[in-house]
Amino acid sequence: MKKQITAILICVILGIWVGAIAILSVQNATPVQLSFLGLQSIQMPVGVVLAFAVAIGTIAGAIFSGTHSRFPSGTHSRSRR
After folding, report:
1. For the packed helices 46-64 and 2-27, what is the interaxial angle rounded to 10 degrees?
2. Relative to the CA of 60, which of 1, 49, 52, 80 has its CA 20 to 30 Å away?
3. 4-30 burial, b for 16+ CB within 10 Å, e for fewer?
4. For the chain (length 81 residues), average pLDDT per consecutive 10?
5. Are 21 and 54 in contact (CB under 8 A)?
6. How far apart are CA 45 and CA 62, in angstroms?
7. What pLDDT score was predicted for residue 81?
8. Which of 56, 73, 54 is nearest to 64 (CA)?
9. What integer pLDDT is reported at residue 14 of this predicted model?
10. Buried b (16+ CB within 10 A) or exposed e, 52-79
11. pTM above 0.90, yes or no
């Protein structure tokens, strides 16, 4: 039951993100150009930039969520004095 609620919550959150990106894409169709460390991108609509940012963040979050421990090494196994 808990896994079903979690899956539904994830779908709702992603749906809200997709809806927000769609609304922003329609309202902000002006092309933008990104500059980072001297590199420049092609001109593309703000919605496309947001979609890429959300996709990259979601993928990075999924990859890195399992690579760290909740507790630093050695702190969770301390015994009480």
Report:
1. 160
2. 1
3. eeeeeeeeeeeeebeeebeebbeeeee
4. 83 84 76 83 80 83 71 55 52
5. yes
6. 26
7. 52
8. 56
9. 83
10. eeeeeeeeeeeeeeeeeeeeeeeeeeee
11. no
Tell me the one-letter amino acid at 48. V
**Residue 31 pairs with which residues in a beta bridge?**
45
Contact 31, 11 (CB under 8 A): no
Q: What pLDDT is recorded for position 58?
A: 80
DSSP collapsed to 3 states, 30-67 = CEECCEECCEECCCEEHHHHHHHHHHHHHHHHHHHCCC
Q: Cβ distance 31 to 44 under 8 Å?
A: yes
Q: Centre a 10 Å sphere on the Cβ of residue 45 and count the other Cβ atoms it contains.
A: 16
Q: How far apart are CA 81 and CA 78, in angstroms?
A: 9
What's the CA gap between 49 and 21, in Å, rounded? 10
